[in-house]
Amino acid sequence: MDKIRIVGGRPLEGTVRISGAKNASLPDLCAALLSADPVRLRNVPEVRDIRTMGRVLTALGAEVEFRVGGEVQVHAGRLTSVEAPYDLVKTMRASVLALGPLLAREGRARVSMPGGCAIGARPIDLHLQAFEKMGATIGVEHGYVEARAERLRGAQIHFDTVTVTGTENVLMAACLAEGETVIHNAACEPEISDLAELLQAMGARIRGAGTPTVQIEGVAALHGAEHTVIPDRIETGTFVAACALAGGEIEVRQCRPDHLRAVIDKFRETGVRIEEGPDNLRVRAPRTLRPAHVTTLPYPGFPTDMQAQYMALMSQASGSATITETIFENRFMHVGELQRMGANVRENGRVAVVTGPTTLSGAPVMATDLRASACLVLAGLAAQGETVIDRVYHLDRGYYRIDEKLRGLGADIERLS
Ligand code: UD1
User: Fold this and answer.
1) How far apart are CA 99 and CA 147, in angstroms?
2) What is the rounded CA–CA span in Å between residue 168 and residue 187?
3) Which partner from 52, 54, 288, 290 sits 20 to 30 angstroms from 352, CA to CA?
C-alpha cells in the first residue's frame, strides 16, 4: 500500500494546472447511460473513483474507453445488466448515480444500498422518495435497492435537504420521463450545471440548473454528445491552501475562480493574497495568517469538501477560529491526526475551535477519507521534519497526482510504494 512522505518547511513556487472535476465527471459518465449513442467527455481526471465508475458502466454492458489526455468515451448502445454490484458501490457511494439513468432508460435498476461511510450515515432516502413520486416502485432486498417503473412520470420534487447526488439522479431520470419534472430546493453546485450542460447537448430540455428550482421537460430519447468537464474547484482550493501554509507564491492555472467565491473570500479574510484572472489565480502566502470563522454550507456557501484543508490552515493562524460543519455529522476525522502533529483543536459536536499558531511537527499519520488526507498533506507541508501518510488510496480516489504536482512547486514530497 502506498504512503506519502513529506518533509515540511519548503515554500512553494511556480505553476500548477488543475485537473477536471471528479464530482462533475462521475454524474457525466452516468449520463451516458441515457443514450444508445456514444458520449465523449474531455478533461476527466484519471483518479481512482473515475476508474471505479468505468467498472460500474462496464458491468452494465457499456463500452468504456479511456483515452490519453483525460478523454473518456462511453457507448451504452445496449445494456446487458441493470445491476450496480455491492463490491463496486461499497468502494464508491457515487455508484448510486447509475440508479436514475437505469430506471429512466431500462425501467429497472438494482443498485447495492450504500452503507455508512467514514464521514457519516449518508442515506439515499431522498433519491428514492423522488423516484417513487415519479411513479417507480422501490423495494430494498438483500442489501439492494430494486426500482421499477414502466415509464417514469414527471413530478414536483421537493427536497427536504439540499442533496447534490440526489439532484443529479433526479435530473438525469427526468430527462426521459413523461412530462414535466420540477426539482424544488435543488442543489446549485457547479457540478449540477455541468451535468445539465452535457444533458442539454444530448438533447434534454432543462431550465434553471444551478438555481434552487430546476425544470425538466422529458423527451423520448437522448442522442450522443461531446462535452468538456469543468475544472475541479476543490483541487483548486486545496492548492491555494497549500501555498498559504507552506509559504511562497504560486499560479494556479486552468481553474474557475467564479466557482470558488466563498473559498477565495475566506482565504482573503485570513490574509492570503489572491489575484484572479478568468481561469487562473495568483496566490501569495502572507507573513502571518489571521483566524477567520467558517461554516460549511451547500453551494454557494463554503464547501464541506474544503473544511479539513481549512482546519490545517487555521492551525497556523494567530488566534482562534471556529469551524462549524453543517453538512455531515462525522466529518472531523482529521482532528485526531492534526492533534498528533501538534495542532490545538477542541472539538465539540459539529464545532471545532482551532487555536494557532502552533508549531506542527512531522509524524506518521493515517488518512481516513479523501479530504482528510488532503488536510494531512497540507499539515505535512507546514510541519517541521518528516510526515508519513498511510492509506494514501483515499487521496488517490480524488486527487490526480497531488504528490507530483506539489513536487513541481518545490515541495519535498515523495510516494513510497
Ligand atoms: C456530494 C459530493 C461530496 C460532497 C457532498 C456535499 C459527489 C460525488 N459527492 O455528496 O463530495 O461532500 O456532495 O457537498 O458529488 N442526505 C439525506 N438523504 C439523502 C441524500 C442526502 O439525508 O437521500 C443528507 C446527507 O446525509 C448529508 C446531506 O444530505 O447530510 C448532503 O448530502 P449530499 O449533498 O447528498 O452529498 P452527496 O451527494 O452524497
Assistant:
1) 8
2) 9
3) 288
8 Å CB contact between 244 and 58 = no
Please tell me the distance from the alpha carbon of residue 353 to that of residue 324, in angstroms, as a whole number.
9
- Check if 117 is active-site: yes
In the numeric block, which cell numbers belong to residue 275? Answer: 489575484
Q: Give the integer Cα–Cα distance in Å for 165 and 154.
A: 19
Q: How many residues does the chain have?
A: 417
- Tell me: pLDDT of 143 over 90: no
Instruction: Count CB neighbours of 264 within 10 A.
Output: 20
Cell 501538534 maps to which residue? 342
Q: Which residues pair with 226 in a beta bridge?
A: 40
Whether residue 286 is preceded by a cis peptide bond, meaning omega within 30 degrees of 0, is no
One-letter amino acid at 57 equals L
pLDDT tens-digit map of 289-316 = 999 999 999 999 999 999 999 999 999 9
- The single residue listed with the C-alpha cell 499519520 is 365
Q: Which of 126, 132, 165 to mutate to test the pocket of ligand 1 (most atoms within 8 A of CB)?
A: 165
Greatest alpha-carbon pair distance for the chain in Å reads 63
Distance CA 209, CA 72 (A): 24
Pocket residues: Cβ below 6 A from ligand 1: 23, 26, 94, 120, 122-127, 161, 163-166, 191, 303-305, 327-328
pLDDT in tens, 146-163: 999 999 999 999 999 999
Cβ-based neighbour number of residue 271 at 10 Å: 18
pLDDT at residue 372, rounded to an integer: 92
Q: Which residue CA neighbors atom 7 of ligand 1 most closely?
A: 23
- Is the separation of the CB atoms in 138 and 96 below 8 Å? no
Asked if omega into 300 is within 30° of 0 (cis), the reply is: yes
Question: Could you read off the pLDDT of 209-239 as tens digits, one per residue?
Answer: 999 999 999 999 999 999 999 999 999 999 9
Residue in 292, 279, 197 with CA at minimum distance from that of residue 236: 279
Q: What is the mean pLDDT of the chain?
A: 96
- What is the spatial distance between Cα 176 and Cα 351, in angstroms, rounded to a whole number? 42
